[in-house]
């Protein structure tokens, strides 16, 4: 009888250890901001765990210095225009721009109320190698690499370059956090999936993600997981080792990290980071053609250099929009400026560029019968 109780006791202890281990591993990577109302789902085949929750706010962050102020405002305007959820912006800006952001966004907040909230952070680099970090690629762009440590109160965010324009609702992109498995800390699109076009397989002199490399202009960042991953500890040693071979700065460092940790990346479709590379030689992003461009990324100054009139047309329509005005004017101007633009391969993707704005703005802002 005593032997029977001993076996039962040992069995119960083993069960408790297994349950403790199971619970610890589920909670380890959950988005902490979601803990109160999260629903955990398991896929027994892949042992993958997800966190889901109705979106109460979307956190969007970017870094801006020097002459990118107006471009940043258009990024904010576009995300507000297409969102049906409250947006919270975390803006890392230099000393010259912080007051300008505060004045402008407070004016917009009087119009939009709680649908717009923001905080403005200083540019902060480690004192050691500060100048190298500040001027790596474009000025202060490398700030993004240190964000997990700079804002410990934030659990997750959408990081976007200032030269991006939303054409779809940010909350839909935010929804990809719920599709991360237990190992993924970030989501990005490939630089390109054509080895004859993608920069990395042709020119890179450093390790990079997969066969084609990643473009970091749009990056979902689970900051909680990145802190557990010790992300910031990687970046300085990599910069010092490869600083002569990383022309794209912070993007190259991100590629080097994920070269060694490929499973930590959730791949996004090219429609979420649509650049001139996806259209200038013909249609290279079928998903954007079929379902619509979601984020337009004007990298290499495509919004301003007069080489890509279709990109300039979209940007101009957003630039002319006044917050609180009639959103239908944005759609009308997009169509008008695209029609007036010189013919180009990217202009041939007009339907892909307008697919989401037509659907969202027509459905979201229905004019009342009078």
TrEMBL record:
<dbReference type="GO" id="GO:0140563">
    <property type="term" value="F:UDP-D-xylose:beta-D-glucoside alpha-1,3-D-xylosyltransferase activity"/>
</dbReference>
<keyword id="KW-0808">Transferase</keyword>
<keyword id="KW-0472">Membrane</keyword>
<keyword id="KW-0328">Glycosyltransferase</keyword>
<keyword id="KW-0735">Signal-anchor</keyword>
<comment type="similarity">
    <text>Belongs to the glycosyltransferase 8 family.</text>
</comment>
<dbReference type="InterPro" id="IPR051993">
    <property type="entry name" value="Glycosyltransferase_8"/>
</dbReference>
<dbReference type="Pfam" id="PF01501">
    <property type="entry name" value="Glyco_transf_8"/>
</dbReference>
<dbReference type="InterPro" id="IPR002495">
    <property type="entry name" value="Glyco_trans_8"/>
</dbReference>
<keyword id="KW-1133">Transmembrane helix</keyword>
<dbReference type="GO" id="GO:0016266">
    <property type="term" value="P:protein O-linked glycosylation via N-acetyl-galactosamine"/>
</dbReference>
<keyword id="KW-0325">Glycoprotein</keyword>
<keyword id="KW-0812">Transmembrane</keyword>
<dbReference type="GO" id="GO:0016020">
    <property type="term" value="C:membrane"/>
</dbReference>
<dbReference type="InterPro" id="IPR029044">
    <property type="entry name" value="Nucleotide-diphossugar_trans"/>
</dbReference>
<comment type="function">
    <text>Glycosyltransferase which elongates the O-linked glucose attached to EGF-like repeats in the extracellular domain of Notch proteins by catalyzing the addition of xylose.</text>
</comment>
<protein>
    <recommendedName>
        <fullName>UDP-D-xylose:beta-D-glucoside alpha-1,3-D-xylosyltransferase</fullName>
        <ecNumber>2.4.2.42</ecNumber>
    </recommendedName>
</protein>
């Amino acid at each position: 009888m005593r032997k029977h109780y001993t076996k039962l006791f040992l069995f119960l202890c083993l069960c408790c250890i297994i349950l403790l281990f199971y619970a610890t591993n589920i909670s380890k990577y959950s988005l902490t901001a979601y803990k109160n109302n999260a629903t955990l789902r398991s896929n027994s085949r892949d042992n993958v765990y997800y966190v889901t929750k109705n979106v109460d706010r979307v956190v969007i962050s970017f870094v801006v210095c020097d002459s990118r102020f107006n471009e940043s405002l258009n990024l904010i305007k576009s995300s507000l225009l297409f969102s049906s959820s409250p947006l919270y912006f975390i803006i890392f800006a230099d000393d010259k721009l912080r007051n300008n952001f505060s004045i402008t966004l407070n004016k917009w907040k009087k119009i939009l109320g709680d649908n717009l909230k923001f905080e403005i952070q200083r540019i902060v680099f480690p004192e050691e190698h500060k100048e190298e970090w500040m001027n790596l690629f474009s000025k202060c762009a490398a700030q993004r690499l240190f964000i997990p440590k700079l804002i410990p109160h934030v659990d997750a965010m959408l990081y976007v370059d200032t030269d991006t324009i939303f054409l779809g609702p940010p909350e839909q992109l935010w929804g990809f956090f719920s599709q991360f498995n237990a190992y993924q800390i970030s989501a990005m699109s490939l630089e390109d999936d054509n080895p004859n076009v993608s920069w990395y397989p042709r020119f890179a002199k450093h390790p990079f993600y997969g066969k084609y490399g990643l473009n970091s202009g749009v990056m979902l960042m689970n900051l909680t997981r990145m802190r557990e991953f010790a992300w910031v500890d990687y970046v300085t040693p990599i910069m010092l080792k490869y600083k002569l071979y990383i022309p794209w700065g912070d993007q190259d460092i991100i590629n080097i990290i994920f070269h060694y940790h490929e499973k930590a990346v959730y791949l996004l479709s090219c429609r979420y980071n649509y650049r001139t590379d996806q259209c200038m030689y013909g249609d290279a992003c079928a998903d954007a053609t079929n379902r619509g461009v979601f984020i337009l990324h004007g990298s290499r100054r495509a919004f301003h250099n007069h080489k890509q009139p279709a990109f300039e047309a979209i940007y101009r329509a957003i630039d002319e929009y006044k917050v609180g005005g009639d959103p239908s004017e944005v759609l009308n101007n997009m169509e008008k400026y695209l029609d007036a633009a010189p013919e180009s391969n990217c202009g041939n993707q007009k339907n892909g560029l307008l697919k989401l704005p037509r659907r969202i703005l027509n459905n979201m802002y229905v004019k009342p019968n009078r």
